[in-house]
Amino acid sequence: MISLYTDSSPNGFKITIALEELELPYVVNHVHIEKGENLLPEFLQLNPHGRIPVLSDSETNTTIFESAAILLYLADKTNKLLPSEHNARWQAIQWLIFHASSVGPIIGQRVNFEIFDEGKNKEATERYKKLTERAFSTMDSHLANNLYFGGKEYSIADIANFGWTHIARIINFDFDHYKNLSEWHNRIAARSAVQRGILIPEPATGP
Ligand SMILES: N[C@@H](CCC(=O)N[C@@H](CS)C(=O)NCC(=O)O)C(=O)O
């Protein structure tokens, strides 16, 4: 049985979406970040970095953190959600890594400076806004010629990037001016598994 430790956040939704897509049975453990439950000793045993999501699979005796690694684990376990064709597979892995290094951390910092810190640090606010635009623009260019990040096939790269564009929409980090990105987002958002995944453990309400 799979146990997922998660909260209502971009990184958490990626995994609930993937589990819903794969129709795998799983138990949800709601880790309330706002109450500091992610820093309790029992949670730090699962992820010493104190962050959700964490997935434990009793079938393989595996516990794993970092959302991109969890998505790869699920794709590997099921042989689904990653293209089998060589180039498409590596395209998907490339955009999965892109999301982990150039989308999540950048939007995360933008949230911090623009929303939590109310834009008091003008230089940092501007910098992360610019970097978010650059990431969106890069994604938009790729999606001009590709239905999905891995090409023709929906994959964990789409799920990972959607985790962030879903939150970007909620907190008004607008990307409607990127037509291809916007259409891709709407395509992913229309999937029934995605619609279920973003409600678990609860819908996001913004920061
Ligand atoms: N790179 C990690 C980031 C995980 C992460 O930052 N999770 C946030 C929620 S979206 C968290 O647990 N934050 C708790 C904290 O910052 O104390 C991943 O992709 O899983």
UniProtKB/TrEMBL annotation:
Limits of the GST N-terminal domain: 1-82
Domain GST C-terminal, chain residue ranges per copy: 85-207
TM stretches of this protein: none
Pfam families tied to this protein: GST_C, GST_N_2
InterPro entries per the UniProt record, alphabetical: Glutathione-S-Trfase_C-like, Glutathione-S-Trfase_C_sf, Glutathione_S-Trfase, Glutathione_S-Trfase_N, GST_C, Thioredoxin-like_sf
Name the record gives this protein: Thiol:disulfide oxidoreductase
Gene source species: Xenorhabdus stockiae
